[in-house]
Specification:
Elements lengths: L1 E7 L3 E7 L2 H4 L1 H5 L8 H6 L20 H31 L6 H26 L12 H4 L1 H16 L2 H9 L3 H9 L2 H21 L2 H17 L3 H13 L4 H18 L1 H11 L6 H24 L4 H19 L1 H16 L1 H26 L6 H14 L2 H35 L3 H41 L1
Antiparallel strand pairs: 1-2
């Protein structure tokens, strides 16, 4: 199979190939007289832009001089055989009256001439008008180039990029096992981790800080704006108080309050003296202080000892009412939403997003630099190696990964195979018709000269057989 290439602006290279026509008749498939498989569907697909390349005929690459020389040699051989048949026919015709057995030679040469001429006409008609005469249904490739382009695009799309074809080809490759074995090697894992680190660092340096910060701001604000703060807080408190879990916290609060009272007795005493009238004796102030402190301590101790103490029950009821109020009250929801909006609009939130991206960017770049120098942690590399070894040890996991990879690749190919067909079609349509015909002849013309030679030889053999039968019957 010989290929032809064309270059688009030195960047995009398109390879095309035509098989041996004498073996599989691929060209016959492309030149069939039936309508191509709905070429209008190709026009209906999303257009893929190629700039100004599609506006003018696209020249093909320079032809191979050696291939042209071989084609010309084959043409001379086929034509030489045809001329030889004509010479033999003339000589046999001239001497047949004197030597009747030359009739067999004449019939053979005559039929060989007919077969050779017929095949010469058929082969030449594919690429140009024979003898320059515009005979109908000749110069087929030049006249039907666009139709061939549509047929070729459909042929490649349906027979090379079908999901079943791709899946069948990938099933025997064991992609997951190969990938796992590859990343389990330290050198490969290091190289992949370095690529990941450098790629992230490059992306972080290319991205504009303002754009990323704006993206973070939008993500934070859009995400937070959808949250109903009051019901969320109510749900959290309800979860916290379920099965009286909050009682342990209440006990700690009671003990902390008792300790605070004990530690601040003198402050309470001074406060009592300051608030009492001047004419009350100090001993009475002390007794008032003792009563206050002792009453508070006794109350706290009773509440702490008794799970069903009225103060506990009133606290539980108040907490339940507060939770229900958060969950159901529109007024609570509105106040919480207002507080949330004020918080999101605060400059501190903007500064947080800016510092967050700056810290992430600096960390990514520093990590990439350390990895390039062989310093610092190799967490990514170690993680890749561990993942590869774990996958190799788990046959079921490898099978699942294989199925996922095959399905993902097949889906991607199925999604974009129309674009491949469109690329092939538009590329061939953009080629110059005569140049295309000449290039195709250069690729398959040598095989077609064998068709001419075979036609000459087979025609001669058929002529000999027919002439022999006539002589035997006569």
């Amino acid at each position: 199979m010989n290929g032809c290439q064309r270059a688009i602006d030195g960047n995009i290279r398109i390879n095309c190939s035509l098989t041996r026509v004498s073996q599989d008749n691929t060209l016959d498939l492309l030149l069939t007289h039936s309508k191509p498989a709905r070429p209008t569907n190709l026009d209906a697909r999303p257009q893929v832009g190629y700039g100004d390349y599609m506006n003018t005929p696209m020249p093909l690459v320079t032809e191979d001089p050696g291939k042209r020389k071989r084609l010309d040699n084959m043409k001379r051989r086929a034509t030489g055989l045809l001329v030889l048949a004509a010479v033999i026919f003339g000589a046999a015709l001239y001497g047949e009256s004197a030597y009747p057995w030359l009739g067999y030679v004449r019939a053979t040469a005559e039929a060989a001439m007919v077969g050779g001429l017929a095949d010469w006409f058929a082969v030449t008609a594919l690429f140009r008008h024979p003898l320059g005469i515009p005979i109908p249904h000749t110069a087929i490739i030049a006249r039907r180039k666009d139709r061939i382009a549509h047929s070729l695009g459909n042929f490649v799309e349906r027979n090379f990029f079908g999901p079943a074809v791709i899946a069948q080809r990938l099933e025997g490759l064991r992609l997951a096992e190969r990938a796992a074995r590859w990343i389990s090697e330290p050198a490969h894992a290091d190289r992949l981790s370095n690529s990941v680190a450098h790629g992230l660092a490059g992306a972080a340096q290319v991205l504009k800080d303002k754009d990323v910060q704006a993206l973070i701001d939008r993500a934070l604000i859009s995400g937070a704006s959808k949250i109903q703060v009051a019901p969320l807080l109510g749900g959290m408190l309800a979860l916290f108080t379920e099965n009286r879990r909050h009682q342990a916290l209440l006990d700690e609060g009671l003990r902390a309050l008792a300790n605070a009272v004990a530690a601040n007795e003198e402050l309470i005493r001074e406060r009592v003296r300051a608030e009492s009238p001047w004419w009350i004796p100090g001993k009475i102030d002390n007794r008032i202080h003792d009563r206050i402190v002792t009453g508070i301590q006794h109350t706290l101790e009773e509440v702490g000892r008794d799970p069903e103490h009225p103060l506990r029950l009133r606290f539980d009821a108040a907490l339940e009412r507060f939770i229900e109020h958060l969950k159901t009250s529109p007024d609570a929801a509105a106040r919480a939403a207002s507080f949330k909006e004020e918080l999101l609009a605060h400059p501190v939130v903007r500064e947080f997003s800016a510092s967050l991206w700056s810290d992430i960017k600096r960390s990514i770049i520093e990590s990439a630099e350390r990895q390039e120098q062989g310093e610092g942690p190799r967490a990514i590399s170690r993680g890749l190696q561990s993942m590869g070894r774990n996958m190799l040890a788990d046959a079921a996991l490898l099978e699942k990964a294989d199925r996922w990879l095959i399905g993902a690749i097949a889906d991607v190919v199925a999604q974009y195979r129309g674009e491949v067909a469109k690329l092939i079609t538009d590329t061939v349509v953009g080629w110059d018709a005569e140049d295309t015909s000449r290039k195709i002849e250069l690729q398959i013309g040598r095989d077609l000269q064998y068709v001419r030679i075979n036609g000459t030889l087979v025609g001669g053999l058929v002529g000999l057989v027919l002439y022999s039968i006539v002589q035997l019957v006569g």
